[in-house]
Amino acid sequence: MVSIVPNNIQIEDDRTGINVETLKRAFLDNLFYIQAKFPKISTKNDYYMALAYTVRDRLLNRWLQTTQTYLEKAPRTVAYLSAEFLMGPHLGNNLMNLGLYNVVKQAMEEFGLGLTDLLEQEEEPGLGNGGLGRLAACYIDSLATLEIPAIGYGIRYEYGIFDQEIKNGWQVEITDKWLRYGNPWEVPRPEAELEVKFGGHTENYTDEHGRYHVQWIPFKVVKGVPYDTPILGFQTNNANTLRLWKAEAPESFDFEAFNKGDYFGSVQEKSECENITKVLYPNDDSYQGKQLRLEQQFFFVSCSLQDMIRMMKAQNLTLERFHEHFAIQLNDTHPTIAVAELMRLLLDEHQFDWDKAWNITTKTFAYTNHTLLPEALERWSINMFGSSFPRHLQIIYEINLRFLDEVRIKFPDDGNRLRRMSIIDESGERYIRMAHLACVGSFAINGVAELHSELLKKTTLHDFYEMYPEKFTNVTNGVTPRRFMVLSNPRLANLITKKIGDSWVTNLDELRKLETFLYDSDFCKEFHQVKQDVKQDLANYIRTNYNITIDPNSLFDIQAKRIHEYKRQHLNALYIITLYNRIKANPNLDVTPRTFLFGGKAAPGYYMAKLIIKLINSIADVVNHDPDMRDRLKVIFLKDYNVKFAQRVYPAADLSEQISTAGKEASGTGNMKFSMNGALTIGTLDGANIEIREVVGEENFFLFGLTAEEVLQKKAAGYNPWDYYNSNPELKLAIDRISSGFFSHGDPNLFKPLLDSLLYRDQYLLLADYQSYIECQDRVSQAYRDREQWIRMSILNVARIGKFSSDRSIRDYVQNIWKVSALKVEVPEYSQSTN
Ligand code: RUG
What we know:
This protein is α/β, with parallel strands linked by helices. It is built from 33 helices and 25 strands.
């Protein structure tokens, strides 16, 4: 095989050189030849595009060399299947990973362009809802950084998560046209398109050896076109691929219909096919049983599996060894139809017998569960499922039949257990339980934090744990310190590097060395100054964009995450009202000045979450305009919280709100990002909070609230929220303030649904946790006054956060689940030249 760039040829040109002059030349070249612009008529976006192409050129060699190395060496490869990848902007990340940040900054400055401005220009690919999609992005970063052969497979949604605007305090959704100016980071590969079938029926036939087979005759066929994005690791040559699939019609026109004069009919077919990857369902931690969503899932799964099979063939590998070549991780149940699809491909298209196919399948898949919330556990009505995937339904029935036989053998005479464990829910209308299919079809099952994995074993997947204890394991989530420290908080990163060198970036446990400087007053001062400067940056941003002045010396108290009742943004709101009430009752009260910042999107169909946004904005309206507050209290809802904005927010926090009802947040990952940027956490014993508290030290974490077990006990004992309302005057006053219409221009009905839900049900036990929360918040206020001590607590959060690097999570997956090895990619000399 011809190697991509023979080592004896020195290519040093505008596409590879990395000195200032070459970069400038390359930038102008791209501006001219790709954007077809010259400086005088260029927009900021033209400049961004020219720079993006300049940077992309510089990683292409690594990417192609990686592809070639993987092709030649055929290493065991991780395929990470995820319906969401919330990547965030690429430009800054690639500049950092290539080590080109400073030189490019200088080159741009010499043109009179600010790099920060150009970075701001990038429209982020919002191909995910929140934690789950962002986790996939962090894992893809760590896989490349750790030089693990891997492919991320997902969907190239034309419209990602909606942009959020706030009008009159309410969330308004705007379509996310992220592709409107083009996407310089992706490479379409139409030559690698595949076909995906939908609908129709099955037929049986017997081959010439008398063997019985099934054939799926589809109703329609859709084309899947891969779009590839290089994912370069930090300071390595390994650039893995994120392969996202776009749906297209097989022909642009149905000529038969067209010829009959049915122009609209023929075009309609095209748009129906393309609909499959049109838009991301904007639900987080819940699902809508919509056929199109199921079709999206099958579409990307089928493309990805066919792609893997094709790769093996290209490498002359036998499919009998599929499970040796690929470890496929199912990111939640969204891609779980893969279990049935791989069976179908092996049985029907490659003529394996059932046992062999099942052996391969169950040695291939591993399943990550991300939630215990019942409304998020996917199930598909049999009718709907069967109409789109008749063959898969047959296969699932067969899997279930054989599985229930196994259960019968292990647990004889236990009909209830059979009913509970069946992949088919037969209690009413019949449904396929995707989590059950994932458990049966996978060799490993993991939760995403220790508590969550324990609760899975005890509750949601208890029967499966009894059946297959050896499959269960925990992998606590992690986040990439590259994007969430180095890139988004360069001041802090530089200070750390000045003190302990830079190896912490790829070995986060090294941060421990910072503990040596805990009582070094110069270091503490610098550390504090970094926080103040970053807070000032955010304050400036808020003044520019919201016309509100906030005091960087006030305590920045931030809750940024999806809006959900279980995450309890409204508990935070109740505390704000309580503080407000206290100051109103005693205008000279000595309070620690606080700025409460919220950010997050609500699912468009989730009324209660939208009402919580309205409540926060209504409180902000009153509080921010009340002269009695005299800048001691400010409340701001930051609109359109996304990865780009999150990168501004995490570094600026003093306090991170992680206040979900214990047992409900599987892990959380924002909690880690805040803490690694020096915020202290106020939180419950939920998800990864527990492990964060363990490592940072309980004295450096503000704990409150019921434990998961106490939550269950309280509910079992007959929880009555009214008891709390009636016996707690501050709570009663806070609630009464809302119900009286104080925050709604006198309208007592506006927030009634929210208050009724709290007083008559309170599923998430806000009232039960209220007192503990406000006492804890008061301790926070007290602690913030002791600046030296607070700084030390903050330093300790940074110093001890090493465990929550996604590098550690990926190492856990590699060692305990995937059993893959790193494969270092070498690149020819020239691309590292500094000429
Ligand atoms: O709600 C969970 C978070 O607790 C978790 O940190 C994150 C990543 O594991 O996944 C979130 N999640 C769960 N998002 N969607 C789901 C259920 O589909």
